[in-house]
Amino acid sequence: MSFTTNFYLPRAVENLPVLIVPGLRNSDDRHWQSLWQARLPHSKRIHVDDWNTPNLAEWQAGITAELANLDKPAVVIAHSFGALASAAIAAEFPEKIAALLLVAPADPDKFGIAQQLPQDFLKVNTKVIASSDDPWMSEQKAAYWALLWGADYLRIKQVGHINSDSNLGLWPEGVKQLHQLVRKAKASFKFSSLNIAVAS
What we know:
It is a single chain. This protein is α/β, with parallel strands linked by helices and about 200 residues long. The chain has a single domain, classed as 3-Layer(aba) Sandwich (Rossmann fold), CATH 3.40.50.1820. Helix content is about 35%, strand content about 15%. The protein has seven helices and six strands. The protein has a six-stranded parallel β-sheet with strand order 2-1-3-4-5-6, sandwiched between helices. Helix 1 (about 5-10) packs parallel to helix 6 and helix 3 (about 55-65) crosses helix 4 (about 80-90).
């Protein structure tokens, strides 16, 4: 089967709901999160009243509100500040999340919230993707948080904050990483009982 991103993206999360968690200022139309959401007809984006103010509690409330409406664990796709809030929710409600993709997490020290984040392994299949030149989090700190959370860690070279300014389009590498993460989640004992087919 030839690789086509339009087909491959929905297949990566087949039979699981998807929740999009942007960072500050939301994700615009050129952002890979928005492009993915447009191709995942059953995906949802969290609601935040003020996208310009980094309020961890508000982001968390936005995530939990959407998860409460789902009848099965979701694939959470988070970026920047949204990645921090998503990690916190995964620690509190692991049964609600099937897989957690944390892209370009922002440095929690910039917001004074490091102690409000999980300080141990997450009980969720998690992948952290960071860039070598991200102005919002050094790759060393990104690796530290990934290690602390027991997440798979991928460092990519010189793509900034992995956002619209990075000009990634649909970001095929991200789609590939998402597919691998969800396959791992579906193959785990926890979710095998849900009779969710593993996409090939």
